[in-house]
């Protein structure tokens, strides 16, 4: 399933880059707060990644990277979540997601279920390897695959639905 879409690669000199990044950061602040109302909502639904995927796929790597870096840092400063211990891992995974998402959009040039699945699996697999190297525990590193499958499905199908909905913008 593919849909043609207007996909952008905004530059650092474009004010829209920063406005869109702030919009997606706001989404990545609000969505985790809602998800944390559910027991284990954060680790299960992986909400901090959702708008990073959308930002990078629709508006390019720079908007995605700004969203990927600012979202966890601002959430940590405002709500102490994510904790300081997992912040580096979240920053790595978020940055990987921004890169994979922007690359997929640039390569595929359309919104595709298969491309978004590839993005989610790519950042999760590579991010898990980094996490394993950092924490030294394979069991801890594969937490997203143990309990975060609903979040990955939300990114896959929810990301596709939102990107399809905003495809012509």
Automatic annotation (TrEMBL):
Membrane-traversing stretches: 18-38, 59-79, 85-104, 111-135, 147-167
UniProt lineage: Bacteria, Pseudomonadati, Bacteroidota, Bacteroidia, Bacteroidales
Name assigned to this protein: ECF transporter S component
Superkingdom to which the source organism belongs: Bacteria
Keyword annotations: Membrane, Transmembrane, Transmembrane helix
